[in-house]
Amino acid sequence: MKNFIHIIFLSALTISFFSCKENPKNMVETTLEKAERIHKKVITIDTHADINVANFTDTINYTERLDNQVNLPKMNEGGLDVAWFIVYTGQDTLTAEGYAKGAENAMSKFKAIRQLCEEFAPNQIGLALTSDDVLKISGEGKKVAMIGVENAYPMGEDLANFQKYYDLGARYISLAHNGHSQFSDSNTGENDSIWLHNGLSDLGKKAVAEMNRLGIMIDVSHPSKEAFNQMIALSKTPIIASHSSARALCNHSRNLDDEQLLLMKKNGGVVQTVAFSSYLNTEKHEAHNAYMNKLYEQIADSLEVKWYDRRALRSLSESDRAIALENQLKIISIKDKMLPNLKDVPNAVNVGDFVDHIDYMVKLIGIDHVGISSDFDGGGGIEGWSDASETFNVTLELVERGYTEEEIAQLWGGNLMRVLDAVQAYAKKQQI
Looking at the whole model, is its pTM more than 0.70? Predict the structure, then answer.
């Protein structure tokens, strides 16, 4: 067991010892009490939370309990200790103009995350670059931010940008998102069987070596299976899937099949199970989603406004999107009041479905190679873990299924930190 998990576990044993001394009757814990105790002790790490720079200003920021899924009050309420905030850029044209526009977007997100930690709330949250930083900042009673990059597209064709992003705090990078990038094919190629590189481009292969050199974890959640295979073969260090689940349980191209999962085990990497409804149980998701969309549209009609799904929202202008989002908050508020009185509502994908994927992967590849992510504020969220304030429910479900305290510590971040340590140790050796 690696040092990060050892520190967490030994701390837990120490607290348990003194707790027993304070409880002379030595009463048996209930499952709920056990889950609460474990949840307070382990360091909980969510590897994927998207951001909107509009929520990172001196007047509107994560010190407030905003309507988004992750902010400091909600992290405190749910006991979420570490959030990997994501520098996400959507795929655009493979041109100098497209790269420049993407770079501007990426820089605004790096700036927003760092401002939160350095200007808006330095007494509440700190930016971590290593597992030691995580322990130090958490030990000071603060929340922890880390930075992941979803889509290397805004780097253009200049490999020097990997160093730039590393210096800004990026500690994992995905070479593609929804659409083929200059570095890698995307999983979305499964839709039409059209591929750009048949895996990685020559530039993408060089990017793998550069990430190894720098100490950046390679994220394989969005690239194609062939790109995945090539990254596994080329990388000198363990890799991660920052937000993917098991394809055997849900046949979605964003999930990893058994062959990929076994390669992740062999590589020493970790798969961060994602609480994204349609990646956990497509049938339940579609039935519930269809019902809810119909309900949303009915409420919108009564208010004489229009309901937009996520895809439609993206097509709106910035001003129209702001109005639509304001209307959606009203619609959702009305829905929340109506829902308890409605009958025959299809079951939503829930924490049980989420932990089914954890169970499956733990059984197939072992506890050392599985972790947890939400994809909050990027489409993630399920019944029982709809935002950071409900994070405890995941620990409760794990305890109810028989996972031990040490295993829960591994799932909630110990495994990921092991990979980060290995990646950074390799990079350090290359620099000697």
Answer: yes
Task: Provide the residue range defining the domain that includes 321.
Answer: 282-348
For residue 10, what is the DSSP state? H
* Beta pairing partners, 127: 145
CA–CA separation, 8 vs 21, rounded Å? 20
Last residue of a domain, one of 322, 348, 374: 348
Alpha carbons 7 and 413: distance in angstroms, whole number: 12
CA 81 to CA 249: how far, in whole Å?
29
% residues pLDDT > 90 (the chain) = 86
**156 backbone dihedrals φ, ψ, rounded to 5°:** 65, -140
For Cα atoms 309, 273, 308, give the angle at the middle one, nearest 5 degrees. Answer: 5
User: Is-contact 285 278, C-beta < 8 A?
Assistant: yes
Instruction: Please tell me the predicted confidence (pLDDT) of residue 310.
Output: 74
d(CA 172, CA 212): 11
77 and 175, same domain (yes or no): yes
Place of tokens 């922890």: 144
